[in-house]
Amino acid sequence: MCDKCSENLLHPIEPSRRSAILLAASALGLAVTGAVSAKEAKAPPKPQNVLSPDAALKRLMEGNARYVDGVARRHDFKHEREALAGGQNPYAAILSCADSRIAPEYAFDSGRGDLFVCRVAGNFAGDETIASMEYAVAVLNTPLIFVLGHDSCGAVDATLKAFKDDKPPGHIPSLVDAIAPAAKVAMQQGGDVLDKAIRQNVIDNVAKLKSAAPILNAAVEQNKLRVVGGIYRLASGKVELIG
Ligand SMILES: [Zn+2]
After folding, report:
1. What separation in Å is there between the alpha carbon of 56 and the centre of ligand 1?
2. Helix (H) or strand (E) holding 241
């Protein structure tokens, strides 16, 4: 142990000094956030990404159509790296499953700095994801959130199986608990339960993000943000909009 560490253990920081340090750190954090926000708002590195929510959705779906047709654009990563070194202004935020077959940047034929992507198996919005989306919307001015489910989703399938079988191992129950409400609705409906649960899970998470107070719901009310959902079809690559 170094002299400084042992000194701190022997003489811990006094409560009043600790409060002052925390206060200063907090103020510094706000100042840095403010500076980043002002800089990104001042000069968006991708002016073509400054879009209305409707225009952002149109661009996203046009990108998917190119991907489906096999006519994706060539992305100049070298040029984009330089342009994006000082900031970002993605035109859409995507909440996607972690499935290796779903790659939002490919599926929507988008370059770097275009999509703010959060991924988790089962594409559900936990607190950390909502916080990430709040950053995208409030700081980066992203006008669109897209919840992207997909057919044959293993996380949704595991949730349906968990109702019949034993509790899944490890940390998987945390995924199952998040997807369970959608799975229950689908089980009550009958038919192709997996497909219905996947769809319901997207619908539920669109609703959750839309109503997430105080940032996302306010942006939706002010028409600065749209939250929509869709299903990625594995065989065709086509994203089908829901609702
Ligand atoms: Zn999945």
Report:
1. 24
2. strand 239-242
